[in-house]
Design brief:
mainly alpha; 15 helices; about 0% strand; about 65% helix; about 260 residues
Amino acid sequence: MKRIVHKFLGRKPVSRRSETPALPPQIEDIRQGALKGQHLQIVQWGQVLLDSVYVPRDPVAALEWFTIAGNAGFGPGHNMRGRCFQFGWGCEKDLQQAARCYEAAAEAGDEWGRYNLGILTMRGIGMEPDLARALDLFRTAAGKGHAKSMNLYARFLEEGWVVPQDRAAALDWYRKSAEGGDYRGQHNYATALVDAGRIDEALGWWRKAVVDATSDILLAMDQKLTALGPKGDVELLERVHGRLKEMKISPSGAVAAVSTPPKD
């Protein structure tokens, strides 16, 4: 392992360090761990190279680091390689290769890889859709504590997709997902709580979800909170609108006019 890392680093033994400003201690610790061949730090350093304010963005180098970790049998390395091939980070997009990487990650016990493979399988990205296989992937990852997989497993149960409909079980899995920190699970659990008349509890989960929610969830929250009227939370609704405004999106779902192109 150390020989592989040193071979990779040997391409720029001096200039890479001289061109890079001093790093914060926690980031330098990650870099040093990667240089020593520590698998987790190798993946973390690749993630720094993908998107960090501390070093110039270098997706090609990031993919190489992920490959080192994957070749060592480290699941998160396979998963991040899959992300690179899925989105074209440092390489050409290759959805079939992405799926193979996620499969390898899942086989190595990485639940993010299992979840990402489930997404491709459910949506038919780079393959024919297979809801039964997607269900199995999400159910397995949910059972191992993966919060986002819990949310999707709950969705299968709620809708009765290739499994007997069981809304009571779905509610329980939404709760587990919410407690695990997934903002989609928090929103879905809050929605179910409103339907059950437990509005105060629902508002509490929406307050958690608003922090990290993406635009689709924020728009759904806007609709739900608006429908509650005086039973809702005006301050929370304003926070939702504020986050949407930052994204240049109006509460109606229309993209607001902007004077500069949106960021990638």
